[in-house]
Amino acid sequence: VHRELLVIFSAAHVTAFESTGDELLHRLVEFYWGDDGFGHIFPSADACRKAINEYVGTPFANWHKLLLDHLEVSAVPDKKLRARLLVGCVYLGMNVPMIKLFVTSYGIEMASWPKPKTQEESIREHLAAIDEIFEKAPSSPT
Questions:
Q1: Cα–Cα distance for residue pair 105/68, rounded to 1 Å
Q2: Which of 16, 64, 120, 142 shows the smallest number of beta carbons within 10 Å?
Q3: Prediction pTM value
Q4: How many CB atoms lie within 10 A of CB 45?
């Protein structure tokens, strides 16, 4: 469920900012699949890209159907849980246009964010900051 929600909101961002959609998709996949991302919920970066593109290429009115299929709601043996999942998917279908409107109105165009630093760059930056602290610290009497 978490994976699907992540994919849905990512697809909403990609469709909301069509002018930079390809770059945004690239950055999202890089972020999710990167060292600090959510790579563990996708078998590969290509699977992540494919999952987002599946929603992007589907009309909003059918996003709830994709969610139903991906969650395999019809195969859930517990009737109450299956009913709750079905209702949740219906609510999603009713609210997808509002999600896109919200993202378009209040979302941040993530493709314009600066490229994230590599782990090595972050470590170098932290070590430099530590060195600076020690350089400014008064020397202790020996």
A1: 28
A2: 142
A3: 0.65
A4: 16
